[in-house]
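haha ok so turns out i had the wrong file open the whole time. this is the CORRECT one, sorry everyone. sequence first:
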Amino acid sequence: MKKNKLIIICFAILICFSITSFAQNAATNSGGQKNQTQPTIITVPLKVTGQSYKALIEDPVKGFDIRTALNVVDNALKTRGFKANDFIGTLEKTQTANAFTNGVQVDEQTAIIDASGADIFITVDIDVKRGNTGSEVSLALVAKHCATGAKLSTSLPGKSGKFYTDDINKLMIKAVDNIKEDFINQLQISFTDIVNEGQQISLQFSISGDSPINLNSEVGTDGDLLSESISDWLGKNVYKNYAKPSGGSNALLTRYDIKLPLKNQSTGENYQPKEDFGRLIRKYLRSLKIDAEVSTPQAGQLIVTIKGKLIN
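then structure:
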């Protein structure tokens, strides 16, 4: 009899645990936080308006120095457990997929980041001086979160010192060695903060010019204004309930700072602000018979344009 009671109790505990685990496994539910391994990074050379990555890495004067710098930075990050995607291979992949045409890009950097699937992109700014008194390398790094554009770490300029040598690889290593510890430590701290607290983005709801409804229109069956319904819905669907009004609000425009999980809490895949959360927003508004469009004009920003009522 005691044995049967013990079996029943264990079975009941197992059922309760299973139900609890399932309830916490929603995509944005912080209770289901997925374990995060070291992030994937891609290092890219600094370029200014009008330049292309292909031209930079194939430049007969500076191309070798740039390629060497990318390799040295990648190797330094790998020693700390980061996964580094190959920049040149990713660039070739985007070109094969016709991401660029005749060197003219809508946003070349975004195309590279999207094709790489990286969590973090690191911009490498290098300067190599060669002369009769020796050669010297100066190098600076900036790391940003791919999905939001948030700056994660910035290095001071790392200098190799001046040496009588043509071995640029050794000079690059010296320059990186002088800055890598502080840079990578800050990068790790910043990324861990995103893992724990979520990625912050700006969310804007705006009303199109020809929409017959606005944020002060009543929606649903409870008499709530659209602005009130949005506020309530966000509180239940963002990461750790973080949704704070940002700036002014009126009948035609309202803004929020929200946080989303780094990983989809259901699948463990990277959580994409537009593809994942944008889809949730569209489905929510559709449940209110509202037609809306979601766009991402830049990293870290979602804009929801309300176009009007859906026709049944």
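The radius of gyration is 25 Å.
again sry for the mixup
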